[in-house]
Inverse folding.
């Protein structure tokens, strides 16, 4: 009878310690997105704010759509959107459990863009444009 009482105390202590560990050391969801470009090294603007150069990884808290602009000298500027999609385990009621699990869950979303090379303007066309510009300016006077 004494041993069953000791076993109950040990089990209660273990249960209490487990609950404390879950409460204090509970896991979390790490959300991040990565933007890559070809060629790499393009300047990144997200929602009008300049961030860095590709490849670039950033953590985020909220899902949704964001405006992206990529610029690289000698290439056409890319303007578009990225959509950070909500995984199934982030919907209610699953999200309640994913936030308290004793380990970290990672939601990593990748976006890749290929920038188009800007076409060079032929020299004869440049000269013709400069001549027309000079003529136009002289006609204004």
């Amino acid at each position: 009878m004494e041993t069953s009482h000791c076993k109950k105390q040990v089990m209660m202590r273990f249960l209490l310690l487990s609950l404390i560990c879950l409460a204090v050391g509970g896991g979390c969801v790490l959300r991040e997105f990565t933007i890559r470009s070809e060629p790499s090294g393009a300047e990144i603007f997200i929602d009008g704010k300049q961030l860095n150069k590709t490849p670039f990884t950033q953590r985020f808290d909220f899902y949704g759509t964001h405006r992206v602009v990529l610029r690289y000298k000698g290439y056409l500027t890319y303007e578009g959107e990225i959509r950070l999609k909500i995984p199934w385990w982030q919907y209610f009621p699953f999200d309640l459990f994913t936030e308290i699990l004793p380990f970290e869950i990672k939601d990593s979303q990748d976006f890749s863009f290929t920038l188009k090379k800007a076409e060079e303007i032929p020299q004869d066309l440049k000269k013709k444009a400069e001549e027309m510009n000079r003529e136009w300016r002289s006609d204004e006077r």
